[in-house]
Amino acid sequence: MPFPLPGTQLVHVGRQPIFDVTGDVVAYELLFRGSMDAVDAGRRDTYATSQVIVNTFTEFGIDEVVGDRTCFINLTREFLTGELVLPFGPDHVVLEVLETVAVDDEVIAGVTALVGQGYRIALDDFVWGSGHEKLLPLASFVKLDLLEGDLTHLDEIVAACRAYPGIQIVAEGLETGEHLALSNRYGFELRQGYVLSRPQVLTATSLTPSRLRRLELLGALSAADTDLERILSIIAGDPALTMRVLRASNSAAVGATTKISSVRQAVVMLGIAHIRQWAMLMVVDDVAEATEVQMAEALTRARLCENVAVAFGASADAAFMAGLIGAVAGMLGLSNAAMAHQLPLSPDIAGALERGTGPIGQVLRVVNAYERGDLAEVAAAYSGDDLTGTVMDAMRWSRMAVQATQN
């Protein structure tokens, strides 16, 4: 197993294909995995659900995980009742009601509201008499476990589901040819199980977000008079939060289409409500902080790019963004181009990171040359104020920004 660099973490999400009767993959169930070699989930609680959502939508990107297919996501009671808000829309998503959820009036009301918002519902490991039959009028899918489920009343359960023409049945736990034959005999529309495909664990390297910054952001978002400038300051001052906001803005579930050129634009595009929802999930999905040294180095680079931008006629905000993305790419062991490819960047920032083009590309070349000690190249390319003073300003600014996160 690879080990993450200091200040980074390995994040994982499992996915298991769901097939139609012709053998085509039509959907993936997303699963919690605590490590890249985990065989099963190990836990199916609110923490697990939050990790799956955060990792899928803000670390990998939903397009990378499922492409244009549907994803099934297990939900606990807190999400079904609205205590924790889903930070994505209903397109290409099916919400699975776990069999461990006690179906009472509050759950029924919550599921009814979700269906009213356009979400599709699946009843996981469906057992007649568990109370989940109350949700059949709201369901689009019912999952029947042919491996560990009680099959003695399968005829009656299938007949009850078929009373609702809008329901498709997913046969899960398929591990033998007999299970497939049973699925064919009953005409189950969808199939899932080891005999068809085992779950795959996807792993990526991620910068560990600052726990304190998350809490500070959540507090600012929860204030009665939300201060946009404070929110922007909190996000821009934490590289990991910046990356997650950018990735969230690129999520198909959020519906963003405009290319991003600044943190401000990303926040405005997502809206305070979406940022608040992601922050709540990040608090649930709590991990260790990035190191202070890495934070300061990343912010120094970003601030230096911002300060140098004026000499090349580049946007200061865009230069800050490009510098920060380059620093984070270095932390994750990625190239600038690989990092840029994951984010919804405006053409000038993307071109600068991927090919070194445009005024921002000139900014990055000067900063890169200074960092590697090539003062001749700096002198040849940069005609602005004394760069040493500019560097000292960037270092002071980043030191104060990092200290602010520790107070």
TrEMBL record:
InterPro entries cross-referenced by the UniProt entry: dGMP_Pdiesterase_EAL/HD-GYP (IPR014408), EAL_dom (IPR001633), EAL_sf (IPR035919), HDOD (IPR013976), RNase_Y/CdgJ (IPR052340)
Protein known as: Diguanylate phosphodiesterase
Pfam families: HDOD
Origin superkingdom: Bacteria
Sequence ranges assigned to domain HDOD in this UniProt record: 207-391
Domain EAL: 1-213
PROSITE patterns according to UniProt: EAL, HDOD
